[in-house]
UniProtKB/TrEMBL annotation:
Sorted UniProt keywords: DNA-binding, Transcription, Transcription regulation
Domain HTH asnC-type: 5-66
Cellular component aspect of the GO annotation: cytosol
GO molecular-function terms, A-Z: sequence-specific DNA binding
Pfam families xref list: AsnC_trans_reg, HTH_24
Biological process according to GO: regulation of DNA-templated transcription; response to amino acid
Protein name: Transcriptional regulator, AsnC family
SUPFAM superfamilies in the cross-refs: Dimeric alpha+beta barrel, Winged helix' DNA-binding domain
Gene3D superfamilies: 3.30.70.920, Winged helix-like DNA-binding domain superfamily/Winged helix DNA-binding domain (1.10.10.10)
Keyword Transit peptide applies: no
Length: 156
């Protein structure tokens, strides 16, 4: 379900995605409005579910999490109970940054951020001890070329 947003709403979203720590006064100035209307628009977008949360982006390398693996998973199990166990195993592991169910030959792809290959192997061993997986391929990212959390909100 999409929400109808006008040009000012989209500018506000672009500003918040750029730096959510900005004051409402700063955002209002940048989008050509005043503080109260901007606050009302932000509140409405929160209520509509357009804005999910405010957060802080951390530098993985600075925290010693220097290895990013993309994990391709094929399973021969497609029952509800297997999927419930698998999803629970992923949800409790903080090293799993993203998990997607796919169409095609691969059933799932995970983005896993860890300190090194040994830490990835520990993650892998724990995962396969909890759920049966037919095939796993782990790809080590050699270089992050682009990473963003900003969605294209359609601002000129």
């Amino acid at each position: 379900m999409s929400v109808r947003l006008d040009r000012i709403d989209r500018k506000i979203l672009a500003e918040l995605q750029s730096d959510a720590a900005q004051s409402l006064d700063e955002i209002a100035k940048k989008v050509g409005s005043s503080k109260t209307p901007v606050w009302n628009r932000v509140r409405k977008m929160r209520e509509a579910g357009v804005i999910r949360q405010n957060t802080v982006l951390l530098n993985a390398e600075a925290l010693g999490l220097e290895a990013c693996f993309f994990v391709l998973i094929r399973t021969s199990e497609h029952e509800a109970e297997w999927q419930r166990k698998f999803l629970q195993a992923l949800r409790v592991r903080p090293e799993v940054l993203e998990a997607h169910r796919l169409a095609g030959d691969i059933d799932y792809i995970l983005k896993v951020q860890v300190t090194n290959a040994r830490a990835y192997d520990e993650f892998y061993q724990a995962l396969i001890s909890e759920v049966k997986i037919h095939n796993v391929t782990a790809l080590l990212s050699m270089e992050e070329i682009k990473s963003t959390t900003a969605l294209p909100v359609g601002v000129d």
